[in-house]
TrEMBL record, chain A:
Record-given protein name: Mannose-1-phosphate guanyltransferase
Alphabetized Pfam families for the sequence: GMPPB_C, NTP_transferase
Compartments reported by the entry: Cytoplasm
Pathway: Nucleotide-sugar biosynthesis; GDP-alpha-D-mannose biosynthesis; GDP-alpha-D-mannose from alpha-D-mannose 1-phosphate (GTP route): step 1/1
Main location: cytoplasm
Automatic annotation (TrEMBL), chain B:
Transmembrane regions: none
Superkingdom of the source species: Eukaryota
Recorded GO MF terms: GTP binding; mannose-1-phosphate guanylyltransferase (GTP) activity
Protein name: Mannose-1-phosphate guanyltransferase
Top enzyme category: transferase
EC numbers for this chain: 2.7.7.13
Pathway terms, separated by semicolons: Nucleotide-sugar biosynthesis; GDP-alpha-D-mannose biosynthesis; GDP-alpha-D-mannose from alpha-D-mannose 1-phosphate (GTP route): step 1/1
Lineage: Eukaryota, Fungi, Dikarya, Ascomycota, Pezizomycotina
Domain Nucleotidyl transferase, chain residue ranges per copy: 4-198
Role according to the record: Involved in cell wall synthesis where it is required for glycosylation. Involved in cell cycle progression through cell-size checkpoint.
Length: 364, 412
């Protein structure tokens, strides 16, 4: 089978992290974001993966080369010369996606969930129409585009209502699809939107179905959601009693949902969790408190620091008795001096912060 | 020749700016650098030949009883007595009221110290200047910034240190040499005060605009600054000794933090044995009461005082702060630029924080988003800060429990 991952541009919404690494390579729960998807696709029998990108950084090419061998898949970069929206990239990759009459997957690179590719493919085969989109239930549908089914039909989509004022349903497009190659005929090679042009046309022909997603779903394209998505992913691992989580028998684990790379070192009298990931070669000192945070590779958290709702970027240093909170994001190689308080700071790479940041601010 | 000394301690109706700490203890007894504010005045008086010290104020007698008992043992070189004014008489009115006690034994001159100043008290130098010039009065002066000067009594002097002009809190710029609230008077000043009272009475009698309900306008109230020092400057026998050493007032509760720093630095520089030496966990100067318990992994200093029976837990950090009697700081907590009140408790990983102020800055407020807030965070008696809670630039009245993060607030 084949798949296309919509990667897009520079991932500006996830800056300052994406100033250092392309978004697909930023580690989500200690593995590059794209790897979660590549792995799930490969497990579902996908052998050809197209990455739809606006640019092709060498570092990404090199990494994906590795994954090609590891997962025995072929990964092709499809580079847009101008942004083609969410549908145009499919046309651009027609040669691969349309090489046989088997359906292909399309997914948004920012979406994390328990990818249901296998079941999705089976469901799609059973109804026999052109496309299936994965939908997820949300509490506040008014912020999204809502899927409305044909009367008396459980999966056939009647229409989409963008940001509904009145309640028409609570299922929204989760950004994961399976489409027959025939759909490519519906798309022109120009900047065009799959949500606003292709799908409405398919629903008019009664060719689009929905598939309910089980479990969590999150678009992790920006730091706040990246942290929320981390919580959801870790909770989902906990439900499955995953071996990836650090056992709660460890004295420092507090409230569970903690994932610590085996090469990381944790000091004495720490309290870590709930909802924390700690990357490779991280060194955490004594008496450190971390909750609802992501600590990326090679960082040092010194003694007695207190960290909550924060992303500590690669090779960062957090000083003794420092306090970070409220979606603070440290770019690569950022140092927070001892005893400093940071409230919602977004700090660009290689900066040293020596004075408090009392209110959320971007530190250039 | 021996001199007497008077320390003006004020009363509970005054010193409201020292709230919330003065709700539980009279300001003169508040401990900075491990000792009550007035203890530092007494220590300065031991450097000169003084046989009698009077505390003048309108607190109840019982307030200073224990302090005087202890101080009398510690300072056997002088007799310490409390003289109570039953109604506020003003700084000069009080001196006049107790003239018999002051003049008993015919001392040539006497010192008057305001209890709420924190300085090195160069009393010897003031005596020397008084001798050299046969001065009727010597005032201690210090230079401050031009902007700050109009908040104080301003002194204009000639190069020979003679005071030419004195104005209390002028509206326009007069001078940046200000009154430190420390005076050395010839005994004859009592007659000057009497004369000033007569003048005032006459003026009141003939003043159609006189309003007896206005503050400070009562017949008996005579203020040293407004009513005595101004006229004294006209008489050409009034001198100023300008100190280059530290000086600041202890008015607001927050000002106790820089005062604590100044007295600790002074004690450390003079090689006091009370203060621990520098180490990995001590950045001097730090004062730790012998009954306090500080975990060896806690880091203290600079400019920290830890009071009796206070407990500082493992991995805690305390900097530029006063931790009072029976307070407890739990493990990994961080306390910066703050006063932790008597019996207050700070939870694990909590952060109690003020804003740095320089010791030469005479205000204790700071602008935050255009709003004036106290720069020093103050937790009054028995306040509780829960684990992991952050308190920044707050003043917290006694017995409050903080369960949520707070910033820039007064918590009633």
């Amino acid at each position: 089978m084949k798949a296309l991952i919509l990667v897009g541009g520079f991932g500006t919404r996830l800056r300052p992290l994406t100033l250092t690494l392309p978004k697909p390579l930023v580690e989500f729960c200690n593995r590059p974001m794209i790897l979660h998807q590549v792995e799930a696709l490969a497990a579902a029998g996908v052998t050809d993966i197209v990455l739809a990108v606006n640019y092709r950084p060498d570092v990404m090419v090199a990494h994906l080369k590795k994954y090609e061998e590891e997962y025995n898949v072929k990964i092709t970069f499809s580079v847009e010369n101008e942004p083609l929206g969410t549908a145009g990239p499919l046309k651009l990759a027609e040669e691969i996606l349309g090489k046989d009459d088997k359906p292909f997957f399309v997914l948004n690179s920012d979406v994390v969930c328990d990818y249901p590719f296998q079941q999705l493919a089976e469901f799609h085969k059973v109804h026999g129409d052109e496309g299936t989109i994965v939908v997820t239930k949300v509490e506040e549908p008014s912020k999204y585009g809502v899927v409305v089914h044909k009367p008396g039909h459980a999966s056939q989509i009647d229409r989409f209502v963008e940001k509904p004022v009145e309640f028409v349903g609570n299922r929204i497009n989760a950004g994961i699809y399976i489409l027959n190659p025939s759909v490519l005929k519906r798309i022109d090679l120009r900047p065009t939107s799959i949500e606003q042009e292709t799908f409405p046309a398919m629903t008019r022909d009664g060719q689009l179905h929905s598939f309910d997603l089980e479990g969590f779903w999150m678009d992790v394209g920006q730091p706040k959601d990246f942290l929320s998505g981390t919580c959801l992913y870790l909770s989902s691992l906990a439900k499955k009693s995953s071996k990836l989580l650090t056992p709660a028998t460890q004295s420092f684990v507090h409230g569970g949902n903690v994932m610590i790379d085996p090469t990381a070192k944790i000091g004495n009298n720490c309290r870590i969790g709930p909802n924390v990931t700690i990357g490779p070669n991280v060194v955490v000192g004594d008496g450190v408190r971390i909750q609802r945070s992501v600590v990326l590779e090679g960082s040092r958290i010194k003694d007695h620091a207190w960290i909550k709702s924060t992303i500590v970027g690669w090779h960062g240093t957090v000083g003794k008795w420092a306090r970070l909170e409220n979606v603070t994001v440290m770019g690569d190689d950022v140092t927070i001096a001892d005893e400093v308080y940071v409230n919602g700071g977004s700090i660009l790479p290689h900066k040293t912060i020596k004075a408090n940041i009392d209110v959320p601010a971007i530190i250039m | 020749m021996s001199t007497k000394a008077l320390i003006l301690v004020g009363g509970s109706q005054r010193g409201t700016r020292f709230r919330p700490l003065s709700l539980d203890l009279p300001k003169p007894l508040f401990e900075v650098a491990g000792h009550p504010i007035i203890w530092h005045c007494l220590t300065a008086l031991t450097k000169i030949d003084v046989k009698e010290v009077f505390l003048i104020g309108y607190y109840d007698e019982s307030v200073f009883r224990d302090f005087i008992r202890d101080a009398s043992k510690e300072f056997p070189q002088f007799v310490i007595k409390y003289l109570r004014e039953y109604q506020p008489l003003g700084t000069a009115g009080g001196l006049y009221h107790f003239r018999d006690v002051i003049q008993k034994g015919s001392p040539k001159r006497f010192f008057v110290l305001n209890a709420d100043v924190c300085c090195s008290f160069p009393l010897k130098e003031m005596l020397q200047l008084s001798d050299d010039r046969e001065a009727e009065a010597v005032i201690l002066g210090t230079r401050v910034s031009n902007e700050a000067a109009s908040n104080f009594g301003c002194i204009v002097s000639d190069p020979g240190k003679r005071v030419l002009h004195y104005v209390e809190k002028p509206e326009s710029h007069i001078s940046n040499l200000i009154n430190c609230g420390v005076y050395l008077f010839d005994s004859s000043i009592i007659f000057k005060i009497r004369k000033a009272m007569e003048v005032k009475a006459k003026r009141i009698a003939s003043d159609p605009l006189y309003d007896p309900t206005e503050e400070g306008s009562s017949d008996d109230v005579l203020r040293l600054e407004q009513d005595i020092l101004g006229p004294l400057a006209d008489e050409k026998n009034f001198y100023v000794y300008e100190t280059r050493d530290f000086w600041r007032q202890i008015k607001t509760a927050g000002s106790a933090v820089p005062a604590n720093a100044l007295y600790l630095q002074k004690a450390y520089q003079s090689g006091s044995e009370d203060l621990p030496a520098a180490s990995a966990t001590i950045i001097p100067p730090v004062y730790i009461h012998p009954t306090a318990s500080v975990d060896p992994t806690a880091k203290l200093g600079p400019n920290v005082s830890i009071g009796p029976r206070a407990v500082v837990g493992p991995g805690a950090r305390v900097k530029e702060s006063i931790v009072l009697e029976d307070a407890e700081i739990k493990h990994d907590a961080c306390v910066l630029y703050s006063i932790v009140g008597w019996g207050a408790r700070i939870g694990a990983w909590a952060r109690v924080e003020g804003t740095p102020i320089s010791v030469t800055q005479h205000t204790t407020t700071v602008l935050k988003n255009g709003v004036k807030v106290q720069s020093v965070t103050i937790l009054a008696k028995d306040c509780v800060v829960h684990d992991e809670i952050r308190v920044q630039n707050c003043v917290c009245l006694p017995y409050k429990e903080l369960k949520k993060d707070v910033a820039n607030e007064v918590i009633m």
